[in-house]
Amino acid sequence: MRTLKNYKKQRQHNCILIKKRTTLMINTNKGQNTMITILATLGTFLMVFAVGSVEADNYMIGFILALLGVSSFVMTIMLQEKNEPIKLYYKQ
User: Fold this and answer.
1) Are 25 and 37 within 8 A, CB to CB?
2) How far is CA 4 from the centre of its chain?
3) What pLDDT score was predicted for residue 86?
4) Angle CA(37)–CA(72)–CA(86) in degrees, nearest 5?
5) Residue 14 per-residue DSSP state
6) What's the average model confidence in pLDDT over 5-10?
7) 22 lies in which domain range?
8) I need a surface site. Which of 6, 16, 33, 80 has the fewest CB within 10 A?
9) What is the number of domains present in the chain?
10) What is the pLDDT of residues 9-18, one digit of tens each?
11) Element (H, E) at 5
């Protein structure tokens, strides 16, 4: 069984770099992934409610809900760009 103590470890930007031969991607940001899912779901519901309120001739409420939905989607995209998995490089 191979251990990681045989290789030199170097820490850079949440990545552990070891002799590069095989790459293993590990995502450890579970709280951030939960927030991404919640914001995307909330944005979808807000857009559906905005369409419903515009059909009921409530244009101001529809505009506010659409604005909140778009901002929720923008925050989702920003969190996805920030979310980088840990890269493990190890020699086999």
Assistant:
1) no
2) 29
3) 59
4) 45
5) T
6) 47
7) 4-90
8) 6
9) 1
10) 444 444 555 4
11) none
What is the total residue count of the chain? Answer: 92
Please state, rounded to an integer, the average pLDDT across all residues of the chain.
76
Q: What is the pLDDT of residues 9-52, one digit of tens each?
A: 444 444 555 444 555 555 556 788 889 999 999 999 999 999 99
User: For residues 24 and 90, what is the distance between their CA atoms, to the nearest angstrom?
Assistant: 8
Contact 65, 59 (CB under 8 A): no
Which distant-in-sequence residues (6+ apart) come within 8 Å of 73 by Cβ? 39, 40, 43
Radius of gyration (Cα) for the chain, nearest Å? 21
Q: What are phi and psi of 3, to 5 degrees?
A: -120, 160
Single-letter residue type at 10: Q
Q: Alpha-carbon distance 50 to 26, whole Å?
A: 38
Residue whose token pair is 């590990």: 26
User: Which amino acid does the sequence have at 47?
Assistant: M
